[in-house]
Specification:
Layout lengths: L4 E12 L2 E3 L5 H11 L3 E14 L11 E16 L4 H9 L20 E5 L2 H5 L6
Antiparallel strand pairs: 1-2, 1-3, 3-4, 4-5
Helix pairs in contact: 1-2
Length: 132
């Protein structure tokens, strides 16, 4: 089979005024991050790379496969959060959802209720742009 094996990777960061908001280290960090995002606009950048691996050349002495980058890009969406009360933030953090998410929220889950507006590709905010 001469068809290449394709490997797709992506990663997402949340950018509030030039500060990268990573995954929270604990509950207090998640609360602090969501408090910063409350009522604010921020950027979400998702980087995507597609690599292709081809089978070793049957005529070559080496059994090494060949790898090449087929495509890579970054897509950015702008997200505006609603004004959040301390009770809103506490309830969301108590759900456990923000604990493994960049910026302490997942738009595809309960965290979508925190978002007032998305400008750009919704799927960029989720972590894999689908309309590019």
């Amino acid at each position: 089979n001469d068809s290449p094996v394709l490997v797709l990777g992506s990663d997402t960061i949340v950018d509030l005024d030039g500060t990268i908001l990573e995954k929270p280290v604990d509950v207090d960090d998640a609360i602090a991050t969501l408090s910063k995002l409350s009522g604010q606009q921020h950027s979400v950048h998702t980087g995507v790379a597609l690599y292709a691996f081809t089978a070793p050349d049957s005529n070559a002495d080496s059994e090494a496969s060949h790898c090449y980058k087929a495509c890579s890009f970054v897509d950015t969406a702008t997200v505006t959060f609603a004004e959040l009360s301390p009770q809103d933030i506490q309830a969301y953090v108590a759900s456990g959802e923000p604990m493994d998410k960049a910026g302490s929220y997942g738009i595809q889950g309960i965290g979508g209720q925190l978002v007032r507006r998305v400008e750009g590709d919704f799927f960029t905010v989720m972590g894999l742009p689908m309309h590019r």
